[in-house]
Amino acid sequence: MSTRKPPFRADHVGSLLRPAPVKDARARFAAGEIDADALRGVEDAAVIELIACQEAAGLEGITDGEARRSWWHLDFLWGLDGCEKQVMDRGSPFAGTETRAEGAMVTGKLGWSGHQMIEHFKFLKDHTSRTPKMTIPAPSALYGRPVGQVINRDVYPTNDSFFADLGAAYNKAVHAFADAGCRYLQLDEVFIAMLCDEKYRQTLRDRGDDPDRTGEIFVELVNAAVEGIPDDMTITMHFCRGNFRSTHAGEGGYEPVAKLMFDNLNIDGFFMEYDTERAGDFTPLRHFTGDDQRIVLGLVTTKLGELEDRDALMRRIEEAAKIVPLDNLCLSPQCGFASTEEGNILAEEQQWAKLKMIVEVAEEVWGEL
Question: Is the pTM of this model over 0.85?
C-alpha cells in the first residue's frame, strides 16, 4: 500500500483556529464596515498563511482550515438549492453549553447548481504543491441534527423523495469538486457516530425515526454521493461525537455502528475519534475488513492544548495494530481545531505543536513519510 495516497500516515481532520485578522474582518463585515471583496482579501491572505504553516509542520494533506466558514456544515448546506438559513429558538446542545441558534431549513426541491466552496477549493489547490484536501459535511448533516422539523412537508410529504433528492444533490456536488481537480475529499459525519449514544437514539425515536434504519439511510446517502467518482479520487469520512468550544455532544463506543460502517460505506478511509474514553476502546475495529482502506486513529485531542505523551500515543497505536494491521492505520487529531468559527480553547501555537508532533510520531512508527 502506497504511503503517498491519502489518507496519509500523518493527517488531520481539516479545520484550524481562525486567525485574529479573519475574526476581526468577519465582525467588521457583519457590521457593514467592509465589503465582501475586502473580507475575501483578508481570508485569502489567512488561507495562504495557514497552508504555509501546515506544510512547515510536515503535513501532506493540506486544507484551507475552513477559514472562510462560520460552521463546519451549515455554510455548505445553505448553498444547496432548496435549503435556506434558519434562525432557531435555541442552539444545538453540547456539554454545558449550546451553539448559536442557526440551522438549515429545506424550503424547496433540493438540488445543486454551483457553490462558492468550489472556488474555495480552487484557491487552495492553486496555493499548495502538496495534496489539497477539501472537507464538506456528510449528507446526514441536513437531517440528523436533534432539532425540530427541518423539512417543509408541502415540498416533501414523505422522506423517501427527500432522501433521493439529497443523495442526487450531493452526487452532483462531489462530481463538481472532482471536476475542479479535487482528488482528496472528506465527508464529515457526526450523526452515524452519534448513534453510539443512547440519548441521541432516543431523540430519534421521539421524533418518529428508527435509529437503526436511520443509520442505514445515512450510509446509503454517502454511497449515493460518491457513486461514479473518478478512479483516482480518495473519499474519507470523519466520525465525530460533536466538537464545539472544546465540548462534546455525545458519547459511546463504536460497537452499535462499526459493522454498518465497515461493511457498507464505499470510502477509502475512516477518521475515528479516539482521544478519550467517551469513544470506547478499539474492540469494534475487529469488524474492519478493508484490505485497501485505512483507519485514521484520532488519538490527539484538539480540545486541550497540552501535548500528549509520545510514548503513550505509540502504545495506543500498537494496541490498535493488534486488531487492524499497522499498514492500514494512520494518525491524526480526533477532530478539527475549530468546527465553528469560535474555535476550541487552545492557542494557535499549541495547535501547530500538536500537528508537528503527529508528523513526528508517524515518522517514528511508519518510517519516513
Answer: yes
